[in-house]
Specification:
This protein is mainly alpha-helical. Helix content is 65%, strand content 3%. The two termini are 54 Å apart.
Length: 649
């Protein structure tokens, strides 16, 4: 059963047919509401007790557990008795709601409003119309607790922002008169929001009602002074001056510039035109580096743009659309392997369609795309495409093209363990190319690659410097996703520097909180528990993580150790025999170390020998640290354990 949740009004849940789920009493609803506020993060039981009662009664912890058990029965009514919960899960000291982002109305609303900030006016209007329609009353209605009050206030401010952005979209689309009624009610209900008054005055002016627009500004000035003792801000004062002079009352703030430019584009460029399809790629490229919402939107729309280009039957246009998405890639597990394969197929079709006489730049961009999107592929096509793209880019001396090609080279330096030094050299060249030619995103990519590579080479001081440099550039150029990787590295550094287990675990959990909303499922899914498992293995602790842990794609390498910790030796041995060869990516050495540790514990000499042979080239590296997200300690320690088990050292 697919359950969805609503907190934009009374706290409720619906089953997949739209029927209301019986959540029992107010305390049950409060527990569910508190977990929704946490947005997937773990809330310790003690915190739940404090959040439910001002003066917790005796047995409050047991009562919370009873509430959770009852909620689980309602939310997963068909779950077998001993099967772990998958929605409301136990994780360490508390509970978390592992709901998909689109199944909680408040999460969906926030993502929609955030994502609409940089969208074109027409889709902005459509999305915000839908999002504002999800409200059924005050947020978290019926939950009378301080944390609910704070979240209610935050969501209400977000709703007011959505109302104003919707009005901006109407103005940009030339529908000023349509914006007036809602803005009039909005300004009257929230007189302290100057943007509401400003937009109402603009809407009236553009609807041909200049006198009414001036009257609105006078009313705003009087209300602000009478109620708040404040003078109008500079934007309102400037707007009034412009209206009195009958000058163009359009502020030059970035939002307005964007909205007007986008509106002009929509009016000027015919829908379906080649220019519209090609320019979409530039927008997607910008979206992909602005933050989680933009990255997810770019990923969702990329294939649509490619498909639209291919349907026109223009191989040159398709090549530009496919190859123009030169978004740096730092993580080697694809967010969507199926999509990556389809992009590669489109690139190969474009290469074949253009033939040998294709412009070299176009050809290099397509080859680089194949290299980046073929991450972890054992066919040999990815490395070949990377070499060809790099050779063309160096011959043409095109820095942006070289950066795209080097990104492909980086993605193909995982054909065996122990190649951190090669990746560091790639990162160093990207830093140099980016700094020399003013390519900030390229320079950031180079620093992040060096953070990973130097972490694997145990040069923590060097990695620290590149992490700091990446953060400085990210702040200057508004690249918030960089923090996902630098935060992850600093958690790894805490562990690698020999911190006690509890301190290292706390650092990992703090970094994991940011992963949940990063917009990169290939980075986030299953990685936080894998990091904790690696930490426990390094500290010689049993892999006794919660039974309902979602290991994501890393389950095959975690399962033997988890079963061993549960005393299921025979099942662990079977799971070990079925463990696949780790994929060729940043976690290869770490997964081989987990496999090797399980092989030693189960006395499986064949698997132990495979692990030793695979890890031998990385004897000088720190296992997993090259991912910048976790570590299992020095590879040499794991090799020594494997050699001892095999009787060869």
């Amino acid at each position: 059963m697919q359950v969805s949740f609503g907190v934009l009004g009374p706290v409720t849940a619906w089953d997949d047919s739209g029927g209301a789920v019986d959540l029992k009493g107010p305390r049950h609803r409060a527990v569910l509401a508190r977990l929704i506020v946490a947005r997937g993060r773990v809330v310790p039981v003690g915190h739940l007790v404090d959040d439910l009662w001002d003066d917790p009664p005796p047995g409050a912890v047991g009562a919370v557990r009873t509430f959770v058990a009852a909620l689980r029965r309602r939310l997963e009514p068909h779950r077998p008795p001993r099967e772990p919960a998958r929605l409301l899960v136990t994780d360490g000291p508390g509970y978390a709601l592992r709901a998909a982002p689109d199944t909680v109305d408040a999460w969906r609303f926030e993502d929609t409003v955030t994502g609409a900030a940089d969208a074109l006016p027409r889709p902005t209007l459509d999305r915000l119309d839908a999002a504002l329609g999800w409200w059924r009353g005050p947020g978290y209605a019926g939950v009378d607790r301080p944390w609910a009050d704070a979240e209610r206030a935050r969501l209400d401010q977000l709703r007011l922002t959505a109302v104003e952005r919707r009005a901006e979209a109407l103005l940009a689309l030339g529908r000023a008169a349509d914006a007036v009624p809602d803005l009039d009610a909005h300004a009257a209900a929230h007189p302290w929001r100057e943007d509401g008054w400003r937009l109402l005055a603009l809407a009236l002016y553009h609807a041909g009602r200049q006198a009414d627009a001036l009257a609105v500004l006078r009313r705003a000035r009087e209300l602000l002074r009478d109620r708040l003792g404040l003078d109008p801000g500079p934007r309102l004062r400037r707007l009034e001056t412009d209206l009195l002079r009958q000058a163009d009352p359009e502020p030059t703030d970035p939002a307005r510039v964007w909205a007007e430019t986008a509106a002009a584009y929509e009016r000027s460029v015919v829908p379906g035109a080649r220019a519209r399809i090609e320019s979409t790629v530039g927008l997607l490229r910008s979206l992909a580096v602005t933050g989680p919402g933009g990255l997810a939107a770019a990923r969702d729309q990329r294939l649509a743009a490619i498909s639209a280009a291919e349907q026109l039957g223009d191989a040159d246009l398709t090549a530009r659309v496919v190859g123009g998405y030169d978004v740096p890639a730092i993580w080697t597990r694809s967010d969507d392997p199926e999509q990556a394969a389809r992009v590669v197929a489109a690139a190969e079709r474009a290469l074949a369609g253009l033939g040998p006489d294709a412009p070299e730049t176009t050809r290099a961009r397509l080859l680089a795309t194949v290299a980046v999107e073929s991450r972890g592929d054992a066919s040999g096509r990815g490395p070949e495409a990377a070499r060809q793209a790099e050779a063309i880019a160096r011959r043409l001396a095109d820095p942006a093209l070289l950066a795209q090609a080097l990104n492909g080279v980086f993605m193909q330096t995982f054909h065996r363990a122990g190649l951190a030094a090669e990746r560091d050299a790639v990162g160093a060249e990207l830093v140099e190319v980016g700094a020399r030619h003013g390519l900030a995103t390229v320079e950031i990519l180079g620093h992040l690659i060096r953070v990973q590579a130097l972490g694997a080479l145990a040069d923590l001081a060097g990695a620290d410097g590149h992490a700091d440099a990446a953060d400085r550039l990210a702040a200057r150029h508004e690249r918030p996703l960089v923090g996902v990787f630098t935060d992850g590295y600093r958690a790894v550094r805490t562990a690698a520097a020999g911190a006690p287990y509890p301190q290292a675990e706390a650092a990992y959990r703090a970094a994991a909180a940011r992963l949940a909303d990063c917009g990169m499922p290939g980075v986030a899914h299953g990685l936080p528990p894998l990091a904790l498992l690696c930490l426990r293995v390094w500290h010689d602790l049993p892999a006794d993580l919660p039974a309902d842990t979602d290991w994501g794609p890393y389950a095959p390498w975690a399962r033997p150790l988890v079963l061993l910790a549960a005393g299921q030796r025979a099942d662990a041995a079977g799971a070990l025999r079925r463990t696949p060869t780790p994929p060729r990516d940043l976690l290869m050495e770490a997964l081989w170390c987990l496999t090797g540790r399980a092989a030693v514990a189960l006395d499986d000499r064949a698997v132990a020998r495979r692990a030793r042979d695979a890890l031998a080239p990385a004897a000088h590296e720190v296992a997993g640290a090259g991912s910048g997200m976790l570590t299992v300690g020095p590879v040499a320690e794991h090799l020594a354990r494997l050699d001892a088990a095999l009787g060869s050292g």
